[in-house]
């Protein structure tokens, strides 16, 4: 129930990777035949990733994951366009790979606007347009939110960005393989992907860089990735990521339909628990995301008790759950601080069954009741008789 944190590498993907660690282990930059196999495998994966988002293969750059892609897009544009302006527009609900990078860029003298969102976590394209100044060099808005699953109006924001001649980056890490992506139709200039969020291997990612986009390198060194991203290619990882993404996209429509039905069954089951509220947009949300808050109790306690029942779930974002910080996403949606702490994120996967969903609903209902019985905040009518 935590597929937004990571997914298992598909068996056929792992099997396709093995030959590139053993037999075909050549360095793609070398000149002999063994290297040619690796080079061709990387090129084939580039074609697969490009096809999945409507890009040309030469516009795809392989990275070490979503975090690197986000860092590279923001820092790369910021430093390449420094002489043109110093203003970046983003939202208050981005992944930390974006928001912490923006905070660092502010320390380097850039100015960042963090746009507010509505109660569903949605940013208004008109607010994006209104925030543009002659100094604006980049807009970065995530395609789908990793905590609450809300799908942003990316095509509308792309239109605004293009109209004003401002570069547009989107973190599509949670969206890829779940909803259709077309960088041309959506007027996207830069787009981040991460392999392990769509049943590919961990430590793999890609950045799409559209035609004519000037971008400083993040990694300096050799001439790999056409001189823009140094470092010997992670050939097995790249092979796995390419295959995982093309499989995810090929199966997307069928999978989304099945998972959406499970999601709705799960949400209905949880919302039947008294004083439980759905976070994120009721319709414009990822097919696999359910995020709810339960009044009067703490998300961390829910997780610990669910773990004992063999259920892996998340509260707030996985990256901040060790710090017990209140979710910046739920706060931005206007939820009060005490309520934010009672949030639970459940994210389904292609292997999730109806029986899993029913087991989880029953387990959560039991856990919530137990914690409410223990909480001094719980009103009498919600306590067990
Ligand atoms: C997981 C995630 C990232 C980070 O990707 P990694 O490959 O784990 O570095 C970035 N953005 C979003 C929205 C994510 O969900």
From TrEMBL:
Q: Name one GO biological process term.
A: amino acid metabolic process
Q: Which residues form the Aminotransferase class V domain?
A: 2-360
Could you say which residues bind [2Fe-2S] cluster here?
319
This protein's GO cellular component annotations are: L-cysteine desulfurase complex
In this chain, pyridoxal 5'-phosphate is annotated as bound at 66-67, 146, 174, 194-196, 232
| Localization, UniProt | Cytoplasm
Q: Does the keyword Metal-binding apply?
A: yes
The record's section on InterPro entries has: Aminotrans_V_dom, Aminotrans_V_PyrdxlP_BS, Cys_deSase_IscS, Cys_deSase_NifS_bac/arc, Cysteine_dSase, PyrdxlP-dep_Trfase, PyrdxlP-dep_Trfase_major, PyrdxlP-dep_Trfase_small
The cross-references to Pfam families, in alphabetical order and at most eight, read: Aminotran_5 (PF00266)
Gene3D superfamilies of this UniProt entry?
Answer: Aspartate Aminotransferase, domain 1 (3.90.1150.10), Type I PLP-dependent aspartate aminotransferase-like (Major domain) (3.40.640.10)
Reactions accelerated catalytically = (sulfur carrier)-H + L-cysteine = (sulfur carrier)-SH + L-alanine
Q: What class of enzyme is it?
A: transferase
Q: What is its main location?
A: cytoplasm
Concerning HAMAP family, the annotation shows: Cys_desulf_IscS
What family is reported?
Answer: Belongs to the class-V pyridoxal-phosphate-dependent aminotransferase family. NifS/IscS subfamily.
Give a short account of what the protein does. Answer: Master enzyme that delivers sulfur to a number of partners involved in Fe-S cluster assembly, tRNA modification or cofactor biosynthesis. Catalyzes the removal of elemental sulfur atoms from cysteine to produce alanine. Functions as a sulfur delivery protein for Fe-S cluster synthesis onto IscU, an Fe-S scaffold assembly protein, as well as other S acceptor proteins.
* PANTHER family for the chain: CYSTEINE DESULFURASE, CYSTEINE DESULFURYLASE FAMILY MEMBER
Miscellaneous note of the record? In Archaea the pyridoxal phosphate cofactor is not covalently bound to Lys but ligated by other amino acids.
Q: What is this protein called?
A: Cysteine desulfurase IscS
Source organism of this protein record: Methanogenium marinum
What gene name is given for the protein in this entry?
Answer: nifS
